[in-house]
Amino acid sequence: MAIAEYRLVALDCPDPPALATFYAGVLGGEVKQYDDDWYDLYVPGGHHISFQRAPGYRPPDWPRADDNSQQMHLDFTVPDIDTAETQVLALGATPLDLDDENGRRRFRVYADPVGHPFCLCWD
After folding, report:
1. Distances in whole angstroms, Cα of residue 68 to Cα of each of 9, 62, 65, 72
2. Strands 94-97 and 107-111, how do they pair?
3. Which of 6, 100, 116 is nearest to 51 (CA)?
4. Which of 28, 88, 93, 105 keeps 20 to 30 A from 99, CA to CA?
5. Longest Cα pair distance anywhere in the chain, in angstroms?
6. What's the Cα-to-Cα distance from 10 to each of 42, 54, 90, 95, 104, rounded to whole Å?
7. Distance between CA atoms of residues 36 and 56, nearest Å
8. Are 39 and 50 a contacting pair, CB within 8 Å?
9. Helix 16-27 crosses helix 81-91 at what angle (to 10 degrees)?
10. DSSP string covering the chain
11. pTM
């Protein structure tokens, strides 16, 4: 029996409304402000991601773990990797590792506008 029920993932960032808007562009959904330092993105399907202001935020050093690890990353499934890549780059993502080994490795890695790594994956 579970001890707890999953609630959300919260991302530290310097500008919560801006990062919430970026992820709304990737995932759809609705951004809601809780206060000046906390925004939530409610995505289709009932999940949500939160964005918390972190003064002095320092982005992770992907893929290094010796000094400032990636801390966490998000994976998103997409129906068409090339179309999704074009769209996330237009929203402000940065490519980190696009070598999918000619499709054998079924993901590509990007960073959101403040440096959190995320993967676009396909079946």
Report:
1. 20, 8, 6, 11
2. antiparallel
3. 116
4. 28
5. 45
6. 12, 11, 24, 22, 31
7. 16
8. yes
9. 160
10. --S-----EEEEES-HHHHHHHHHHHH--EEEEEETTEEEEE-TTS-EEEEEE-TT-----TT--SSS-----EEEE-S-HHHHHHHHHHHT-EEEE---TTTTS-EEEEE-TTS-EEEEE--
11. 0.85
Cα(36)–Cα(115) distance, integer angstroms: 21
Look up residue 30 and give its two tokens: 């609705």
- Asked if residues 99 and 81 have their Cβ atoms less than 8 Å apart, the reply is no
**110: nearest Cα among 89, 98, 88, 95:** 95
Q: Read off the amino acid at residue 28.
A: G
10-51 pLDDT, tens digit each:
999 999 999 999 999 999 999 999 999 999 999 999 999 999
- At which residue do the structure tokens 């707890």 appear? 4
